[in-house]
Amino acid sequence: MLAEDVEWTFPGPVGRATFFGEFHGRDESMQALKPFLELVETRQLQPRQFIASGETVVVLEHEEVKVRRTGCTCVLDCVHVITIRNGRIAAVKQIGDTATLLQTLEV
Fold first, then answer.
1. CA 5 to each of CA 25, 29, 75: distance values in angstroms, whole numbers, following the listed order
2. How far is the C-alpha of 20 from the C-alpha of 35, rounded, in Å?
């Protein structure tokens, strides 16, 4: 599903968490996301709207995650800007409330 040369961007304060930043290629992108997936359990992931234009799909999403270590939950409304090329995901940019996320994660 991901292109081999996918570009994954998760804007946030680089240095506060390893999953913030720009990542290049499928392996690097998945390695960057791994710590986030280890920290949280996704309780709800609800796409609310899809907006498509050409190769780009914008997904408005409601998400609830539970921090495994503390049991605290974080509710976020996020935007994902996804570029599709040749039937594969070529780029992803995640946009959300990183301050609330960091506060809940306590990182």
1. 4, 10, 31
2. 11
Give Cα separations from 49 to 22, 41, 46 (angstroms): 25, 23, 9
Q: What is the pLDDT of residues 1-28, one digit of tens each?
A: 999 999 999 998 878 888 899 999 999 9
Strand order of the sheet with strand 21-24? 21-24, 2-10, 88-95, 73-85, 56-67, 40-53
The structural domains of the chain, ordered by start, are: 2-105 (3.10.450.50)
Q: Three-class SS of residue 104? A: helix
Helix H or strand E encompassing 98: helix 98-105
Helix (H, G, I), strand (E, B) or coil at 99: helix
pTM over 0.70: yes
